[in-house]
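Hello,

Our lab assistant flagged a job as stuck in the queue for most of the afternoon. It eventually completed. Since we weren't sure the result was trustworthy after the delay, we are filing this so someone can double-check. Below is the sequence as submitted and the structure that was eventually returned. Let us know if re-running is recommended.
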Amino acid sequence: MRKDKRAHIVNAGVREDVVTDGDTGYNKDLGFYDHDRVVTEWAIDYLKRKGGEKEDQPWAMYVGLMFPHWPYKVPQQYYDMYYPDNIVMPHDAHFPNDGLHPQVRNMQNALGLGTITEPMLRNVIAAYYGMITALDDHVGKIIAELKAQNLYDITYIVYMSDHGENLGEHGLFYKQCSYEASVGVPLIVKGPGLPSGQRIDQPVTLVDLYPTLMDIAGLETEPDRPGTSWLPLIKNGSRNREEFAFSEYHGNFFKQDWYMLVKDGFKYTCYVNDRPSLFNLIEDPQEMHDLATDGRYGDKLKQFEALLRTIVDPEEASLRAKSDLGLIGKDGQDYTLTMTDPECKELIRQGVFQDELEFPKWEDD
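-- returned structure --
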């Protein structure tokens, strides 16, 4: 259990009204506002130089903004836009939530969130909304500079995030799980020759980003690289690609690895050593009704599992991930299935498992 996860929620709100140099990016008391402000200034300086160059040479710029990201700290003016009433309360926000899949319930327990009250939710959600608006303002400044330098109309822009935020939905915060709020990310692609105002419901994944950028540049990708360029799909609706999205997770807060597939309006999640989950995203976008235990969907589950096994061997990949973490004993014992929390604690004390800086510290009895 991570005490810092609840602390982020308890301490959410308005950051101190100071100006820093952005630190190294992360500041547990101030958040990422100064980091994003400084990075935005760098991006604008770069665009000014590009706009002043006489030779028309190709260029590329990556802008890594951190908002919206915990710690949930935001300047006063952004917080005031939303607190306390300009927010949408999360659905299924139960702490604890015994209606969750057993593996997701493990995640909620490991986060150590404890009791989260409605005032606490309103506070942290207002701060998160404020971070989104602050991010929008920074992106707006970059767009304005592109236009000022007469670069906007000839520039491709890909706007995306690396993960979502549960923000109280299903009694969860942060990411890690396969719920839409966590695994779904924004994606906007704009550029010369691309249609505007178009929304595409075809599921895609961020692994497609690299071949898309190479396609924009007129370059070939290496044959062993995964993913498919988004450009044919954007330009003419081409379906010459896999019509599903795939995601996998082998990380913290989950006792067992999971693999997710989204296809034809359904989301299937395979949990190693546990039952799967299945949601109808069209009829149940809040993912409240797990269909995996409904016998009428047995064939659908088999179809998804068969598709999954064309992509990855879930048990083999899970074993490799656990082995890399030292969670498989010399005799092949899977500690994630057999070890109790007190036993794990004792092995950390003994130095069998590495005591990461972020791990909790225990006093000797």
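-- support follow-up --
The delay was a queue issue, not a problem with the job. The result is valid. The first helix runs from residue 3 to 10. The two ends are 19 Å apart (CA to CA).
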